Write a sequence for this structure.
């Protein structure tokens, strides 16, 4: 068994097809079949079952896939660290929610690049559940997510606490005026977004279960729609004050139980991390008391 065997195995497992795995790894199907057979002989167990026109992993195959991803990640980290032995270099893949991507990522990149110019930061935005899944499955090295996260396989560092505010069109004088509308209109990100979830929880706490949602995929879009009188939304106070203070919107406080959002940096709980990932994590750790 060699690392290429595991790459071929991982491709077949991910794509559900030996033919597609051959295309993805630039080889022929007969070689994929031979490599899988070799692995099955080495582990003395069946790794795939044929279901209709697809191949699916057996329980043993699922176990091997977890180790294959871990081994592949370690080899990539080792290669980066060896090739950059005289400095911290390589690539760190960071996941984040939409607000972090749009508003925080440039500052994060600039700040980190000053200290580690040889490290490339790749940012990917997604919903919370996808970010957690991708960190666990080695698609991301770390991710900025919203607390609480209680997963034994993940370590976490508290990055910041942010205050949330309800935003409405500027012509609204009292929030009750708009909450009494039937149906109430809200402007939100797609399901899975932490801001949407917090807004819906807040509405539920007020006994409001009927509302019409307009779904957008950007902060700018949400601000524009709220400003135009098409609904209310919820965003961090820092975002509103820093980037949208001059817009025709009004803000209202959220109840204390729901008005704080804690951002965490999560990463896999492993003994070895690349030098680049360790450097990124360390900038968010609190200094140890002297």
């Amino acid at each position: 068994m060699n690392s290429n065997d595991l790459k071929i195995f991982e491709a077949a497992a991910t794509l559900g097809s030996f033919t597609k795995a051959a295309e993805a790894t630039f080889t022929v199907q007969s070689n994929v079949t031979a490599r899988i057979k070799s692995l099955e002989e080495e582990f003395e167990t069946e790794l795939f079952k044929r279901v209709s026109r697809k191949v699916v992993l057996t329980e043993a195959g699922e176990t091997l896939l977890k180790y294959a991803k871990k081994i592949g990640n370690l080899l990539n980290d080792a290669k980066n660290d060896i090739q950059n032995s005289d400095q911290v270099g390589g690539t760190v893949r960071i996941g984040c929610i939409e607000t972090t991507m749009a508003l925080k990522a440039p500052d994060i990149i600039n700040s980190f690049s000053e200290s580690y110019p040889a490290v490339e930061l790749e940012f990917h935005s997604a919903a919370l559940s996808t970010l957690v899944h991708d960190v666990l499955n080695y698609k991301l090295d770390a991710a900025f997510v919203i607390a609480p996260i209680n997963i034994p396989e993940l370590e976490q560092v508290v990055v910041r606490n942010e205050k949330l505010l309800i935003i409405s069109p500027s012509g609204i004088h009292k929030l009750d005026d708009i909450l009494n509308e039937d149906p109430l209109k809200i402007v939100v990100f797609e399901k899975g977004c932490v801001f949407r979830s917090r807004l819906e929880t807040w509405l539920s706490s007020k006994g409001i279960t009927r509302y019409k949602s307009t779904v957008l995929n950007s902060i700018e879009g949400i601000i524009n729609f709220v400003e135009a009188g098409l609904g209310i939304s919820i965003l961090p106070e820092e975002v509103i004050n820093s980037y949208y203070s001059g817009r025709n919107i009004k803000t209202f406080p959220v109840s204390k139980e729901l008005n704080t959002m804690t951002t965490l940096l999560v990463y896999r709980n492993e003994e070895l991390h690349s030098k680049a990932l360790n450097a990124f994590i360390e900038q968010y750790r609190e200094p140890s008391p002297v």
Q: What stands out?
A: Residues 55 and 148 are 36 Å apart (CA to CA). The chain has three domains: 3-81, 88-161+262-282, 163-259. The radius of gyration is 24 Å. The chain has a mean pLDDT of 89.
